[in-house]
Amino acid sequence: MTSSFRVALIGHAFMGRAHAHAWRTAHRFFPLPLEPELVVVVGRDEDRARAAAANFGAAEWSTDWRAVIARDDIDIVDICAPGDQHAEIAIAALAAGKHVLCEKPLARTVTEAQEMADAAQGALASGVRAMCGFSYRRTPALALARRFVDDGRLGRIRHVRAQYLQDWLSSPEAPLTWRLDKEKAGSGALGDIGAHSIDTAQWLTGQTIDEVSAVLTTFVTERPVLAQQEGLGGRAAEGAPRGPVTVDDAVAFTARLSGGAIGVFEATRFALGRRNANRIEINGDRGSIAFDFERMNELEYFDGDDPDDAQGFRRIQVTDPSHPYVDRWWPTGHGLGYEHAFTHQVVDLVTAIAEGRQPEPSFANALQVQRVLEAVERSAADRSRLTPTSA
Ligand code: SOE
User: Fold this and answer.
1) Would you say the CB of residue 192 lies under 6 angstroms from ligand 1?
2) Peptide bond into 105 cis (omega under 30)
3) Residue 1 pLDDT exceeds 70
4) Tell me: the pLDDT tens digits for 4-17?
5) What Gene Ontology terms describe what this protein does at the molecular function level (predicted)?
6) Domain range holding 225?
7) How would you class 329 by CB atoms within 10 Å of its CB: exposed for 0-12, middle for 13-18, buried for 19 or more?
Protein backbone atom coordinates (compact mmCIF):
# COMPACT_ATOMS: atom_id res chain seq x y z
CA MET A 1 0.00 0.00 0.00
CA THR A 2 1.28 3.50 -0.85
CA SER A 3 2.00 5.54 2.25
CA SER A 4 0.50 8.95 2.52
CA PHE A 5 2.27 12.27 2.26
CA ARG A 6 0.48 14.70 4.55
CA VAL A 7 0.17 18.28 3.40
CA ALA A 8 -0.42 21.53 5.31
CA LEU A 9 -1.51 24.28 2.92
CA ILE A 10 -0.86 27.81 4.12
CA GLY A 11 -2.98 30.33 2.21
CA HIS A 12 -6.17 29.55 0.32
CA ALA A 13 -6.68 32.38 -2.16
CA PHE A 14 -5.91 32.06 -5.89
CA MET A 15 -2.60 30.20 -5.48
CA GLY A 16 -3.85 28.14 -2.56
CA ARG A 17 -6.76 26.97 -4.71
CA ALA A 18 -4.43 26.01 -7.56
CA HIS A 19 -2.20 24.06 -5.16
CA ALA A 20 -5.13 22.40 -3.38
CA HIS A 21 -6.42 21.19 -6.72
CA ALA A 22 -2.99 19.77 -7.54
CA TRP A 23 -2.60 17.95 -4.22
CA ARG A 24 -6.04 16.40 -4.66
CA THR A 25 -5.50 15.41 -8.29
CA ALA A 26 -1.90 14.30 -8.83
CA HIS A 27 -2.10 10.71 -7.55
CA ARG A 28 -5.39 10.13 -9.36
CA PHE A 29 -3.72 10.59 -12.74
CA PHE A 30 -0.04 9.77 -12.15
CA PRO A 31 1.51 6.79 -10.41
CA LEU A 32 3.08 8.28 -7.29
CA PRO A 33 5.31 6.57 -4.72
CA LEU A 34 3.52 8.50 -1.95
CA GLU A 35 -0.12 9.50 -1.90
CA PRO A 36 -0.68 13.19 -1.08
CA GLU A 37 -3.31 13.91 1.53
CA LEU A 38 -4.39 17.51 2.04
CA VAL A 39 -4.77 17.46 5.81
CA VAL A 40 -5.08 21.06 6.94
CA VAL A 41 -5.69 24.47 5.41
CA VAL A 42 -4.31 27.49 7.24
CA GLY A 43 -5.60 31.05 6.87
CA ARG A 44 -5.80 34.24 8.93
CA ASP A 45 -9.57 34.41 9.11
CA GLU A 46 -11.36 31.57 10.91
CA ASP A 47 -14.52 31.47 8.78
CA ARG A 48 -12.65 31.68 5.49
CA ALA A 49 -10.11 29.03 6.51
CA ARG A 50 -12.92 26.70 7.56
CA ALA A 51 -14.81 27.27 4.31
CA ALA A 52 -11.65 26.75 2.23
CA ALA A 53 -10.85 23.47 4.01
CA ALA A 54 -14.38 22.22 3.38
CA ASN A 55 -14.19 23.32 -0.23
CA PHE A 56 -10.82 21.67 -0.88
CA GLY A 57 -11.79 18.46 0.93
CA ALA A 58 -9.29 18.92 3.77
CA ALA A 59 -10.31 17.44 7.12
CA GLU A 60 -8.98 20.34 9.19
CA TRP A 61 -8.42 24.08 9.20
CA SER A 62 -6.37 26.38 11.40
CA THR A 63 -5.43 30.02 11.90
CA ASP A 64 -2.14 29.14 13.60
CA TRP A 65 0.61 28.08 11.20
CA ARG A 66 3.12 27.68 14.03
CA ALA A 67 0.94 25.07 15.71
CA VAL A 68 0.50 23.27 12.40
CA ILE A 69 4.23 23.19 11.74
CA ALA A 70 4.82 21.73 15.21
CA ARG A 71 2.61 18.71 14.45
CA ASP A 72 4.25 15.30 13.97
CA ASP A 73 1.77 14.18 11.34
CA ILE A 74 2.61 16.80 8.67
CA ASP A 75 5.16 15.90 5.99
CA ILE A 76 5.16 19.02 3.86
CA VAL A 77 4.29 22.67 4.33
CA ASP A 78 3.03 24.34 1.16
CA ILE A 79 3.33 28.13 1.38
CA CYS A 80 0.82 30.07 -0.73
CA ALA A 81 0.63 33.06 1.61
CA PRO A 82 1.72 36.57 0.52
CA GLY A 83 5.47 37.15 0.10
CA ASP A 84 6.07 38.80 3.47
CA GLN A 85 5.37 35.47 5.16
CA HIS A 86 7.47 33.19 2.97
CA ALA A 87 10.80 33.45 4.80
CA GLU A 88 9.48 33.13 8.34
CA ILE A 89 7.24 30.16 7.60
CA ALA A 90 9.70 28.34 5.33
CA ILE A 91 12.61 28.65 7.75
CA ALA A 92 10.46 27.52 10.70
CA ALA A 93 9.05 24.59 8.73
CA LEU A 94 12.48 23.42 7.59
CA ALA A 95 13.76 23.69 11.18
CA ALA A 96 10.82 21.51 12.25
CA GLY A 97 11.88 18.86 9.72
CA LYS A 98 9.11 19.48 7.18
CA HIS A 99 9.62 19.51 3.43
CA VAL A 100 8.64 22.86 1.96
CA LEU A 101 7.04 24.00 -1.28
CA CYS A 102 7.03 27.81 -1.48
CA GLU A 103 5.29 29.98 -4.07
CA LYS A 104 7.30 32.37 -6.19
CA PRO A 105 8.99 34.77 -5.98
CA LEU A 106 10.83 33.02 -3.17
CA ALA A 107 11.15 36.16 -1.06
CA ARG A 108 10.96 39.94 -1.04
CA THR A 109 14.70 40.53 -1.01
CA VAL A 110 17.96 38.73 -1.72
CA THR A 111 18.76 38.78 2.00
CA GLU A 112 15.56 36.88 2.80
CA ALA A 113 16.03 34.50 -0.11
CA GLN A 114 19.62 33.82 1.01
CA GLU A 115 18.40 32.96 4.52
CA MET A 116 15.84 30.59 3.03
CA ALA A 117 18.39 28.95 0.76
CA ASP A 118 20.76 28.55 3.73
CA ALA A 119 17.98 26.95 5.77
CA ALA A 120 17.20 24.58 2.88
CA GLN A 121 20.89 23.68 2.55
CA GLY A 122 21.08 23.04 6.31
CA ALA A 123 18.01 20.78 6.24
CA LEU A 124 19.41 18.58 3.47
CA ALA A 125 21.48 16.51 5.92
CA SER A 126 18.26 15.26 7.52
CA GLY A 127 16.70 14.45 4.16
CA VAL A 128 14.41 17.49 4.18
CA ARG A 129 13.80 19.11 0.77
CA ALA A 130 12.65 22.54 -0.35
CA MET A 131 11.36 23.65 -3.72
CA CYS A 132 10.09 26.93 -5.16
CA GLY A 133 6.86 26.94 -7.21
CA PHE A 134 7.85 28.24 -10.61
CA SER A 135 4.99 26.20 -11.97
CA TYR A 136 5.29 27.12 -15.66
CA ARG A 137 8.31 24.80 -15.95
CA ARG A 138 5.73 22.02 -15.86
CA THR A 139 3.66 23.27 -18.79
CA PRO A 140 4.06 20.45 -21.34
CA ALA A 141 4.99 22.80 -24.23
CA LEU A 142 7.75 24.44 -22.17
CA ALA A 143 8.99 21.06 -20.94
CA LEU A 144 9.11 20.00 -24.60
CA ALA A 145 11.06 23.18 -25.46
CA ARG A 146 13.55 22.25 -22.76
CA ARG A 147 13.86 18.78 -24.27
CA PHE A 148 14.62 20.35 -27.66
CA VAL A 149 17.32 22.56 -26.13
CA ASP A 150 18.85 19.57 -24.30
CA ASP A 151 18.81 17.49 -27.50
CA GLY A 152 20.75 20.27 -29.25
CA ARG A 153 17.96 21.03 -31.72
CA LEU A 154 18.37 24.76 -31.17
CA GLY A 155 22.16 24.64 -31.28
CA ARG A 156 24.04 27.52 -29.72
CA ILE A 157 21.56 29.95 -28.18
CA ARG A 158 21.87 33.57 -29.31
CA HIS A 159 18.63 35.28 -28.28
CA VAL A 160 16.02 35.08 -25.54
CA ARG A 161 12.93 37.26 -25.91
CA ALA A 162 10.51 36.97 -23.00
CA GLN A 163 7.35 38.91 -22.24
CA TYR A 164 4.82 38.37 -19.50
CA LEU A 165 1.79 40.49 -20.30
CA GLN A 166 -1.36 40.82 -18.20
CA ASP A 167 -3.97 43.60 -17.99
CA TRP A 168 -5.77 43.19 -14.68
CA LEU A 169 -4.47 46.52 -13.35
CA SER A 170 -5.29 48.59 -16.44
CA SER A 171 -8.17 50.36 -14.71
CA PRO A 172 -7.08 52.95 -12.12
CA GLU A 173 -10.13 51.82 -10.13
CA ALA A 174 -8.72 48.31 -9.56
CA PRO A 175 -8.23 48.21 -5.77
CA LEU A 176 -5.06 48.04 -3.72
CA THR A 177 -4.33 44.37 -3.09
CA TRP A 178 -1.29 42.94 -1.32
CA ARG A 179 0.42 42.48 -4.70
CA LEU A 180 0.67 46.31 -4.89
CA ASP A 181 2.36 46.67 -1.51
CA LYS A 182 6.16 46.47 -1.49
CA GLU A 183 6.18 45.44 2.18
CA LYS A 184 4.10 42.37 1.34
CA ALA A 185 5.12 41.52 -2.22
CA GLY A 186 8.69 42.79 -2.53
CA SER A 187 8.08 44.16 -6.02
CA GLY A 188 5.27 44.42 -8.56
CA ALA A 189 5.04 43.07 -12.08
CA LEU A 190 8.77 42.42 -11.82
CA GLY A 191 8.61 39.82 -9.03
CA ASP A 192 5.10 38.56 -9.61
CA ILE A 193 5.34 37.70 -13.29
CA GLY A 194 8.77 38.87 -14.50
CA ALA A 195 10.23 36.30 -12.08
CA HIS A 196 8.52 33.56 -14.11
CA SER A 197 10.17 34.81 -17.31
CA ILE A 198 13.57 34.98 -15.63
CA ASP A 199 13.22 31.46 -14.26
CA THR A 200 11.93 30.07 -17.56
CA ALA A 201 14.70 31.75 -19.57
CA GLN A 202 17.47 30.51 -17.29
CA TRP A 203 16.02 27.02 -17.02
CA LEU A 204 15.40 26.63 -20.76
CA THR A 205 18.77 27.94 -21.88
CA GLY A 206 20.88 26.54 -19.03
CA GLN A 207 22.43 30.02 -18.86
CA THR A 208 22.21 32.52 -16.00
CA ILE A 209 21.42 36.19 -16.44
CA ASP A 210 24.67 37.91 -15.55
CA GLU A 211 24.04 41.53 -16.50
CA VAL A 212 20.91 43.69 -16.84
CA SER A 213 19.88 47.19 -17.81
CA ALA A 214 16.34 48.15 -16.81
CA VAL A 215 13.48 50.62 -16.70
CA LEU A 216 10.65 50.26 -14.18
CA THR A 217 7.55 52.38 -13.85
CA THR A 218 4.37 52.78 -11.81
CA PHE A 219 1.58 54.16 -13.97
CA VAL A 220 -1.09 54.44 -11.28
CA THR A 221 0.37 55.61 -7.98
CA GLU A 222 -2.81 55.58 -5.85
CA ARG A 223 -5.72 53.16 -5.83
CA PRO A 224 -8.91 52.64 -3.79
CA VAL A 225 -8.38 50.73 -0.58
CA LEU A 226 -9.51 47.11 -0.85
CA ALA A 227 -12.70 45.95 0.87
CA GLN A 228 -12.78 42.32 -0.29
CA GLN A 229 -10.09 40.32 -2.14
CA GLU A 230 -11.45 38.22 -5.02
CA GLY A 231 -9.11 36.31 -7.30
CA LEU A 232 -6.27 38.60 -8.32
CA GLY A 233 -8.21 41.79 -7.63
CA GLY A 234 -11.27 42.46 -5.55
CA ARG A 235 -13.75 45.14 -4.56
CA ALA A 236 -13.33 48.56 -2.99
CA ALA A 237 -16.14 50.15 -1.01
CA GLU A 238 -18.13 52.97 -2.64
CA GLY A 239 -16.11 56.21 -2.24
CA ALA A 240 -13.20 54.33 -0.63
CA PRO A 241 -10.10 56.40 0.15
CA ARG A 242 -7.03 55.88 -2.03
CA GLY A 243 -3.76 54.47 -0.79
CA PRO A 244 -0.29 54.43 -2.36
CA VAL A 245 0.91 51.79 -4.81
CA THR A 246 4.46 51.06 -3.69
CA VAL A 247 5.58 48.63 -6.42
CA ASP A 248 6.26 48.76 -10.15
CA ASP A 249 3.42 48.33 -12.63
CA ALA A 250 5.72 47.46 -15.52
CA VAL A 251 9.34 46.65 -16.24
CA ALA A 252 11.53 46.22 -19.29
CA PHE A 253 15.12 45.11 -19.29
CA THR A 254 17.86 43.84 -21.50
CA ALA A 255 20.21 41.12 -20.32
CA ARG A 256 23.45 39.37 -21.05
CA LEU A 257 23.43 35.62 -20.33
CA SER A 258 26.35 33.50 -19.15
CA GLY A 259 26.60 31.45 -22.38
CA GLY A 260 26.85 34.50 -24.62
CA ALA A 261 23.15 34.96 -25.46
CA ILE A 262 21.45 38.33 -25.07
CA GLY A 263 17.92 38.76 -23.74
CA VAL A 264 15.05 41.23 -23.87
CA PHE A 265 12.44 40.98 -21.10
CA GLU A 266 9.17 42.78 -20.41
CA ALA A 267 6.56 42.33 -17.68
CA THR A 268 3.40 44.35 -17.19
CA ARG A 269 -0.14 44.17 -15.86
CA PHE A 270 -1.23 47.02 -18.18
CA ALA A 271 -1.10 45.31 -21.59
CA LEU A 272 -4.79 45.79 -22.30
CA GLY A 273 -6.23 42.71 -23.96
CA ARG A 274 -3.33 40.44 -22.97
CA ARG A 275 -4.77 38.38 -20.16
CA ASN A 276 -1.99 35.94 -19.35
CA ALA A 277 0.43 36.15 -22.27
CA ASN A 278 3.49 34.50 -20.79
CA ARG A 279 5.65 34.33 -23.90
CA ILE A 280 9.15 33.28 -24.71
CA GLU A 281 11.08 32.95 -27.94
CA ILE A 282 14.56 31.49 -28.15
CA ASN A 283 16.75 31.59 -31.25
CA GLY A 284 19.75 29.32 -31.61
CA ASP A 285 22.07 28.75 -34.55
CA ARG A 286 20.22 25.54 -35.52
CA GLY A 287 16.64 26.27 -34.58
CA SER A 288 14.17 28.41 -32.66
CA ILE A 289 11.19 27.90 -30.38
CA ALA A 290 8.34 30.26 -29.50
CA PHE A 291 5.67 29.83 -26.83
CA ASP A 292 2.70 31.88 -25.63
CA PHE A 293 0.73 30.68 -22.61
CA GLU A 294 -2.46 32.02 -24.17
CA ARG A 295 -1.99 29.09 -26.59
CA MET A 296 -0.48 26.83 -23.98
CA ASN A 297 -0.98 23.55 -25.84
CA GLU A 298 1.20 24.68 -28.74
CA LEU A 299 4.92 25.09 -29.29
CA GLU A 300 6.29 26.83 -32.36
CA TYR A 301 9.49 25.30 -33.65
CA PHE A 302 11.75 26.30 -36.50
CA ASP A 303 14.25 23.69 -37.66
CA GLY A 304 17.18 25.29 -39.49
CA ASP A 305 18.02 21.87 -40.98
CA ASP A 306 14.76 21.68 -42.93
CA PRO A 307 15.27 21.87 -46.71
CA ASP A 308 15.14 25.44 -48.05
CA ASP A 309 11.83 24.89 -49.81
CA ALA A 310 10.13 23.72 -46.62
CA GLN A 311 11.50 26.17 -44.08
CA GLY A 312 9.19 27.94 -41.68
CA PHE A 313 7.92 27.77 -38.11
CA ARG A 314 5.73 24.74 -37.51
CA ARG A 315 3.09 24.73 -34.79
CA ILE A 316 3.41 21.55 -32.74
CA GLN A 317 0.23 20.57 -30.92
CA VAL A 318 1.64 19.49 -27.59
CA THR A 319 -1.05 16.90 -26.92
CA ASP A 320 0.72 13.73 -28.01
CA PRO A 321 1.52 10.96 -25.50
CA SER A 322 5.19 11.36 -26.48
CA HIS A 323 5.16 14.89 -25.03
CA PRO A 324 6.09 15.55 -21.39
CA TYR A 325 3.33 14.78 -18.85
CA VAL A 326 0.69 14.33 -21.58
CA ASP A 327 0.35 10.54 -21.61
CA ARG A 328 -1.47 10.49 -18.27
CA TRP A 329 -4.23 12.81 -19.46
CA TRP A 330 -6.46 12.83 -22.52
CA PRO A 331 -6.33 11.35 -26.02
CA THR A 332 -4.24 13.23 -28.60
CA GLY A 333 -5.65 16.65 -29.46
CA HIS A 334 -7.44 17.18 -26.15
CA GLY A 335 -5.53 19.96 -24.42
CA LEU A 336 -4.62 20.88 -20.86
CA GLY A 337 -5.16 24.06 -18.78
CA TYR A 338 -3.52 26.39 -16.24
CA GLU A 339 -4.07 24.01 -13.33
CA HIS A 340 -2.21 21.10 -14.91
CA ALA A 341 1.23 22.67 -14.40
CA PHE A 342 0.53 22.73 -10.65
CA THR A 343 -0.48 19.07 -10.74
CA HIS A 344 2.74 18.20 -12.58
CA GLN A 345 4.64 20.22 -9.99
CA VAL A 346 3.23 17.99 -7.24
CA VAL A 347 4.08 14.88 -9.27
CA ASP A 348 7.71 15.93 -9.73
CA LEU A 349 8.08 17.14 -6.15
CA VAL A 350 6.64 14.02 -4.49
CA THR A 351 8.59 11.70 -6.79
CA ALA A 352 11.88 13.49 -6.09
CA ILE A 353 11.30 13.44 -2.34
CA ALA A 354 10.38 9.74 -2.38
CA GLU A 355 13.52 8.96 -4.40
CA GLY A 356 15.74 11.09 -2.15
CA ARG A 357 16.54 13.58 -4.94
CA GLN A 358 16.54 17.38 -4.82
CA PRO A 359 13.39 18.70 -6.55
CA GLU A 360 13.92 21.66 -8.85
CA PRO A 361 13.70 24.62 -8.83
CA SER A 362 15.52 24.49 -5.50
CA PHE A 363 15.68 27.45 -3.14
CA ALA A 364 19.19 28.02 -4.51
CA ASN A 365 17.75 28.31 -8.05
CA ALA A 366 15.09 30.70 -6.75
CA LEU A 367 17.76 32.74 -4.94
CA GLN A 368 19.48 33.22 -8.31
CA VAL A 369 16.18 34.56 -9.74
CA GLN A 370 15.92 36.88 -6.73
CA ARG A 371 19.40 38.22 -7.46
CA VAL A 372 18.30 39.08 -10.99
CA LEU A 373 15.17 40.82 -9.63
CA GLU A 374 17.32 42.90 -7.33
CA ALA A 375 19.80 43.73 -10.09
CA VAL A 376 16.90 44.89 -12.30
CA GLU A 377 15.59 47.16 -9.52
CA ARG A 378 19.07 48.56 -8.86
CA SER A 379 19.70 49.16 -12.53
CA ALA A 380 16.39 51.02 -12.89
CA ALA A 381 17.10 53.13 -9.80
CA ASP A 382 20.61 53.86 -10.96
CA ARG A 383 19.44 55.91 -13.98
CA SER A 384 22.85 55.55 -15.58
CA ARG A 385 21.49 55.88 -19.08
CA LEU A 386 21.87 58.32 -21.89
CA THR A 387 19.25 60.75 -23.10
CA PRO A 388 19.23 61.10 -26.89
CA THR A 389 20.48 64.56 -27.82
CA SER A 390 19.34 66.49 -30.87
CA ALA A 391 21.80 66.54 -33.78
C1 SOE B 1 -0.75 37.26 -10.92
O2 SOE B 1 -0.13 38.12 -11.78
C3 SOE B 1 -0.47 35.77 -11.18
O4 SOE B 1 -1.45 35.10 -10.45
C5 SOE B 1 0.88 35.31 -10.70
O6 SOE B 1 1.06 35.57 -9.32
C7 SOE B 1 1.03 33.83 -11.00
O8 SOE B 1 2.31 33.38 -10.61
C9 SOE B 1 0.79 33.59 -12.49
O10 SOE B 1 0.81 32.21 -12.76
C11 SOE B 1 -0.53 34.14 -12.95
O12 SOE B 1 -0.63 35.49 -12.56
Assistant:
1) yes
2) yes
3) no
4) 999 999 999 999 99
5) nucleotide binding; oxidoreductase activity
6) 140-295+297-336
7) middle
- Looking at residue 386, its pLDDT comes to 62
Tell me which residue of 326, 270, 389 sits closest to 142, measured CA to CA: 326
The separation between CA 2 and the C-alpha centre of its own chain, rounded to angstroms, equals 29
φ and ψ at residue 165, rounded to 5 degrees: -115, 125
Compute the half-sphere exposure of residue 191: CA atoms within 13 Å on the CB side of its CA: 34
Alpha helices in the chain (DSSP H): 14-29, 46-56, 65-69, 86-95, 110-123, 140-150, 182-185, 189, 195-205, 338-354, 363-382
For residue 377, pLDDT over 60 is answered with yes
What phi and psi values does residue 167 have, to the nearest 5 degrees? Answer: -140, 15
Which of 26, 381, 65 is closest to 217 using CA atoms? Answer: 381
> Number of structural domains, the chain?
2
Q: Is residue 391's pLDDT more than 60?
A: no
**Structural domain contains residue 353:** no
- CA 60 to CA 38: how far, in whole Å? 9
Cβ–ligand 1 contact at 37 (below 6 Å): no
CA distances to 171, 271, 359 from 223, rounded to whole Å, are 10, 18, 39
pLDDT tens-digit series, residues 200-248: 999 999 999 999 999 999 999 999 998 888 888 888 888 889 999 999 9
Taking the C-alpha atoms of residue 189 and residue 179, their distance in angstroms, rounded to an integer, is: 9
Q: Determine whether the shortest distance from the Cβ of 277 to ligand 1 is under 6 A.
A: no
User: What is the three-class DSSP state of 256?
Assistant: strand
Q: Which 3 state secondary structure label does DSSP give 376?
A: helix
Whether residue 37 lies inside any domain: the answer is yes
Q: Distance between CA atoms of 230 and 339, rounded to whole angstroms?
A: 18
pLDDT band for position 383 (50/70/90)? confident
Q: Is 262 in the pocket of ligand 1 (CB under 6 A)?
A: no
Q: Residue 44 maps to which CATH number?
A: 3.40.50.720
- Tell me the CATH number at 253: 3.30.360.10
Q: Decide if the complex's ipTM is over 0.90.
A: yes
CA-closest candidate to residue 88, choices 69, 60, 63:
69
